[in-house]
Amino acid sequence: MIRQCADSDFRAIFEIINDAARAYSGIIPDDRWKEPYMSEEELRHEISEGVRFWAYEEDGILFGVMGIQDILDVTLIRHAYVRTAHRNKGIGSALLTFLRTRATGPLLIGTWKDAKWAVKFYEKHGFRCVAECEKNMLLRKYWSIPERQVEASVVLKDSQAPCQ
Question: pTM for this structure?
Fold first, then answer.
């Protein structure tokens, strides 16, 4: 079942993100990696900035989370993670398919350039990487990330999204 997360899910969201993010260790630039990957303070900040988390739940246990955030004229998919032990079971696909129906604007997704599995996942679902110059503009306009992260990231947009 997919449901919107409640305040009481904070700990589970935090654990899922940091469990799943271990896949990025050694993939993303060393200067962008830390343990935990996302602190509780950072997670609270993301939620306060309007990221609404949705969870994939079975028998009262959360196995995956994905956030959605409306920024200006677009909708961002944010912080998409599935517990390591439950990957490749359709959880991420179910969450993404569900959140597409909740988008109020063209959908954009940012991820690490060298996380080839993540890029392929989104491409499998009809998203396409934008050109480098458009990526830089989109990341600076819609995300609040350091310049170093802009350099090491890609942006994918829904194949149905208009060009910016």
Answer: 0.94
